[in-house]
Write a structure and sequence with these properties.
The protein is of the alpha+beta class. The chain has one domain (4-76): Alpha-Beta Plaits. Helices cover 27% and strands 27% of the residues. The protein is built from 2 helices and 5 strands; from the N terminus they run βαββαββ. It has helices spanning 13-25, 54-63; strands at residues 4-9, 31-34, 45-49, 70-75, 83-84. Strands 2-3-1-4-5 form a 5-stranded antiparallel β-sheet, with helices on one face. A hairpin with a 7-residue loop joins strand 4 and strand 5 (83-84). The two termini are 17 Å apart.
Length: 85
């Protein structure tokens, strides 16, 4: 089984912060981090979540009108390049 986490990228810092605040208020793990070099983004921040929470987080983004740029699968062992989900 491949070990990876899910990373959301954003168009602005404001959206990244709204993403973080909404998920934390719902007790969902989220960590803001710099966007990895392999991924280009308009904003320098990305939101890391656990893969088990992906569908719930996408639903929250839709409900709360939090626009994200892209969703990536980032492999822990860094052997593979990031994949867009």
């Amino acid at each position: 089984m491949e070990d990876y986490f899910v990373l959301f990228t954003f168009y602005s810092t404001h959206l990244a912060l709204a993403f973080e605040n909404n998920l934390k208020s719902k007790n969902i793990f989220v960590k803001l981090m710099p966007v990895p070099r392999q991924i280009s983004s308009s904003c320098g921040l990305a939101g890391k979540i656990e893969k088990k929470d992906l569908e719930q987080v996408k639903d929250i983004c839709e409900e709360e009108n939090i626009e994200y740029e892209e969703i990536y699968k980032i492999y822990e062992n860094k052997v593979k390049d990031p994949e867009i989900l």
